[in-house]
Amino acid sequence: MKSLISLALISILAATIHSQNSTYKRGLTDHFIRFLDTNKDYYTYNFNRTQFFGGSFGGKENDSSPINKVPVVFVHGAADMLIGYGWENDGFRYDIEYFLQNGYTKAEIYGSMWGYADIPYEYNLKQDTEYVLAIRKFMEAVLDYTGAPKIDVISHSMGVTLSRAAIKGGKYLLKDIGYISLKPINKNVRTYIGIAGVNYGVLRCQQSFYYDNFFGCNKLNGFYPGNLDKNNKVVNESEFLHNLNNDKTKEGDQAYAMLSLYDNPLTQNGKYNSAFPTMDMAFIYNSSEYTHLVIRDKTSEFQLRLLNSYHPSEFQETEFMFMTNSEYIHQVKVSQEDKELESNFLQ
Ligand SMILES: *[C@@H]1O[C@H](CO)[C@@H](O)[C@H](O)[C@H]1NC(C)=O
Ligand SMILES: *[C@@H]1O[C@H](CO)[C@@H](O)[C@H](O)[C@H]1NC(C)=O
Ligand SMILES: *[C@@H]1O[C@H](CO)[C@@H](O)[C@H](O)[C@H]1NC(C)=O
Ligand SMILES: *[C@@H]1O[C@H](CO)[C@@H](O)[C@H](O)[C@H]1NC(C)=O
Ligand SMILES: *[C@@H]1O[C@H](CO)[C@@H](O)[C@H](O)[C@H]1NC(C)=O
């Protein structure tokens, strides 16, 4: 209780120190908040996240606010916010600002924070069903509220595995409730983009120091990456990741990964950790500038184009390489050196 109170105090302080950007306002609109407050399917999830400055975004001004684009739902990474005010909690701030400057309105951009932006606790974050469910219900709320037949989804880091699970559905154990079953909603997703995801776990979780000390490394719903058996096959990886990667449901009509060779490059059997089996294509950045956060923050223009008009011929980029799904499935080890870069689940 004491920690809850101090957390509330900290967020009140943060809200007074960080004033709103004069060109747009963080948070959900009153119109969307009213919709959520009066709908029993969504009310309990506290999607407005008003206790955080930067906890949420999106909504119409009034009943006749136009929605001309496929609404985008952003899903941030571990211990982050949706649209915060500093490197540790910026979330999708720079992408949202870019989208707002390039034809999107607040009625077409949505997000609600999962978790508590608690950086010191980050290594204990695991893929709890309550997070999967909150992300899933928020997607349903946006479809319901906007009346759009499909949404686009852009996710980052730990938000990638959580949102892939939310879209694919499946059976999940919910604390104090038991198993719940979620149907896939991939038919309601036009384009899915997973940026810097940790789809095959965190290599450092194999070290006993990490495994023994952090819940985030657990083999049930954590990021335990598994071990290599005699045939170089990965076994004993986290059950959550195992089920997710073996579920053939594609995350949307189109599904893409974006990754950097300077971030989470390889799994122990030589695959790109941020690619995933059901993607159509991965876009691979090979420059030291693209760290775990920069690949989210400095690629807004590409994300927007990828959502709205993907034609391979349009992308004569020099900045990144492509990898198609079949190339990925047959991917061979790139180099042992790259493997030394640690996999990252910081945000
Ligand atoms: C935000 O959501 C919570 C839980 O749904 C609700 O109790 C609260 O009144 C909402 N805030 C506003 C400003 O409506
Ligand atoms: C409704 O909201 C839109 C912006 O989304 C605004 O242009 C319009 O003037 C508003 N209409 C009314 C009646 O307030
Ligand atoms: C406010 O948002 C605009 C984009 O809408 C951005 O260009 C500007 O840098 C932001 N200003 C601050 C102080 O955050
Ligand atoms: C996988 O886990 C089982 C049961 O804990 C264990 O016996 C086996 O040695 C593990 N396999 C590898 C390759 O570590
Ligand atoms: C990444 O770029 C370096 C040169 O900077 C090159 O040696 C390496 O082969 C590239 N990696 C891939 C996978 O193409």
TrEMBL record:
GO biological process: lipid catabolic process
SUPFAM superfamilies: alpha/beta-Hydrolases
Gene3D superfamilies on file: alpha/beta hydrolase (3.40.50.1820)
Pfam families: Lipase_2
Keywords assigned by UniProt, alphabetized: Signal
Residues making up the signal peptide according to the UniProt record: 1-19
Gene Ontology MF terms: lipase activity
InterPro entries given in the database record: AB_hydrolase_fold, Lipase_EstA/Esterase_EstB
Superkingdom classification of source: Eukaryota
PANTHER family reported for this sequence: FASTING INDUCED LIPASE (PTHR32015), LIPASE (PTHR32015:SF1)
Name of the protein: Lipase
Lineage: Eukaryota, Sar, Alveolata, Ciliophora, Intramacronucleata
